Amino acid sequence: MQKRSDYPVSNPSCVDAEEAQGDEEIMRYIRRQQAKKIAAGATQEELDKLLCFPEILPLGIPSTPAAILKSSQNQFLSEFERKEILEFPYVYYIGARSRKKAAVLDNSTYNYGYDDDRGDYLAVNHDHLEFRYEIIDTLGKGIFGQVFHCRDHCTGESVAIKIIRNEKRFHQQALVEIKILENFRKWDPEDKHHMIKMTKYFYFRNHWCIAMELLSINLYELIKANDFVGFSTALIRRFTSQMLLSLSFMRHHRIVHCDLKPENVLLCHAAKSALKIIDFSSSCLEHEKILTYIQSRYYRSPEVILGMNYHMAIDMWSLGCILAELYTGRPIFPGENEQEQLSRIMEVLGTPDKEFVNRCSQKKLFFVVDPNGIPRPVINSKGHRRRPGTKTIAQVLKCNGEELVFIDFISKCLVWDPERRIKPQAAMRHPFVTAGKRSEPPAFFS
Q: 162 a known binding residue?
């Protein structure tokens, strides 16, 4: 009997036209960026960098630690590294002539000098990781650690490596992230569901390190480079279809991302509309929640703000916020704090019903606890007070009448009650997502 999957996969006959249209809009954006750079006096080499990925080098030739120690390369190793290198069966790169830090062997403070005061690894460009990877540059930094562009001297490929902070609580969460990424490799061997692909993980100098495929810019950088004016619903539809495939995949495997935002959605290539979801450092299996403070504020769901039990519906709320931002160029709910965040949500969605409020453990922070559950007044730093139900989603998005189907899709993501919020499988069948496709979307089974 043929096995039927209850989450969809990419359907080439269904998305070819959509992909081509999305790629065309991305290229128009690239041309605008190139025109701006030319006007500013950019060289052709600088323009080419907008579209180029690092070249793949030939496969590295491994050496043994013994051979390195006997060779002239020994002079480029610190005293610590001459002992450390013996832990590795093969050596591909040692970071010769880089300004590497030498460990302070008689002082364990800050990980013998390899870490800063918060436990982040003090990376040095062109030094090595695990005697295999060359650190090229910093890609980003967050609560859980740092991400670096690295060259894998074993395979010749460029990769992104996340180095987790050297602190017990972050070590624990890193193992959860590694487990999730390992499962993605097992569950999605053909890489069809737009999830970041882990290539290797390792433990180096008291830091968990996760090597992943190198991607391009994130959606926030794309919005910023487009001068915060937003994109067409055609390109947003292309992005939405891919993110829904990821969310359907995660829902099937009971995984909650917990930090879906434009910064965590990356284009695979600067000139293409294909994307992937990254950063599972806050993620969890639905029945194994570890973190209580989750989701970046602008994309935080009401149930998380109000201290309710949460599940996979929080990611659909975040998706709605992301799509609204892609359309307008600005966050839909840019609250200064959680109180103002909720007041901005109520300004558009109105006050939640009494039954919903009564289920919230943090209701006293946001509501006057009486039979009616009246919201506490919130005045922001500009002296402005927002009133529930005084705006519509259409007004906030500044949509015209032709975008009613897009407004309807956003409104189904931004629902107070997580049980009534649209689910990824149903969202794949919504007219906004299916519009313009040449065939029916993938079938779903519950």
A: yes
Is 120 one of the catalytic residues?
no
**Do both 299 and 277 map to the same domain?**
yes
SS (H, E, C) 127-183: CEECCCEEEEEEEEECCCEEEEEEEECCCCCEEEEEEECCCHHHHHHHHHHHHHHHH
Q: Is 256 part of a structural domain of the chain?
A: yes
Residue that terminates a domain, selected from 191, 213, 235: 213
Q: Which amino acid is at 298?
A: Y
Question: Domain limits at 327?
Answer: 216-434
Q: Could you tell me the CA-to-CA distances from 158 to 45, 54, 216 in Å, in that order? A: 20, 7, 12
Domain boundary among 213, 240, 269: 213
Query: For residue 154, what are its two tokens?
Result: 């074993």
Q: Which one of 120, 259, 279, 315 is the catalytic residue?
A: 259
With a cut of 70, list the residues of the chain below it in pLDDT: 1-15, 49-50, 290, 370-372, 401-402, 436-446
* Percentage of the residues of the chain whose pLDDT score is greater than 90: 72
Q: Is pTM beyond 0.85 here?
A: yes
Q: What is the pLDDT of residues 170-193, one digit of tens each?
A: 999 999 999 999 999 999 999 999
Q: Give pLDDT tens digits for 304-325.
A: 999 998 999 999 999 999 999 9
Q: Which two tokens stand for residue 118?
A: 């918060």
In degrees, to the nearest 5, what angle opens at C-alpha 83 toward C-alphas 81 and 87?
100
Rounded to whole angstroms, the Cα distance separating 274 from 248 reads: 17
Tell me the C-alpha distance between 320 and 332, whole Å.
9
The enclosing H or E element of 198 equals strand 198-204
| Statement to judge: residues 230 and 206 lie in one domain | no
CA–CA distance, 110 with 167 (Å, rounded to integer): 11
